[in-house]
Amino acid sequence: MLKCTKEGDPPLQVNWKKDSGEIGPLEHSSSSRFVQQTSIERNSSVVFAELKIDASEQADSGIYECIASNQYGQDEDRIKLEVKGIQNHAFFFHHSNTHV
């Protein structure tokens, strides 16, 4: 699961991209391999965003962008995800965050 936290004046929209392209299909339900969830901290302008990738595979490796935008502009975080391979039927991966 990839996570990012953003703060800004509402309404704040959060979108995800992979390698500067669209991720698809991106769903807000469990019907897709890619599931986006967002939540807003109560009485604040902080948004928590998560991107869950079910059954990760090496092709999912890349640079993911968490992009938050509102009427005043946008901000993004980049997360490098490396899916290393399978060991005992479980995927091991490494990710690092870069704030832009």
Q: Structural class of the secondary structure composition?
A: mainly beta
**Largest beta sheet, briefly?**
5 strands, antiparallel
Specify the overall morphology. Answer: elongated
The fraction of residues in strands falls at over 45%
Gyration radius over CA: 14 Å
Low-confidence stretches: none
3D architecture notes:
With 100 residues, the chain is mostly beta strands. The chain has a single domain (2-99), classed as Immunoglobulins (Immunoglobulin-like, Sandwich), CATH 2.60.40.10. Helices cover 0% and strands 65% of the residues. It contains no helices and nine strands. The strands form two sheets. It has a five-stranded antiparallel beta sheet, with no helix packed on it. A four-stranded mixed beta sheet has the order 1-6-5-4, with no helix packed on it. It is elongated and about 40 Å long.
Notable traits:
Immunoglobulin-like, four-stranded mixed β-sheet, mainly beta, 100 residues
Furnish the topology, listing elements before pairings.
Elements lengths: L1 E6 L5 E6 L2 E2 L3 E2 L6 E7 L5 E8 L8 E9 L2 E15 L2 E10 L1
Summed up:
This protein has 100 residues and is mostly beta strands. Helix content is 0%, strand content 65%.
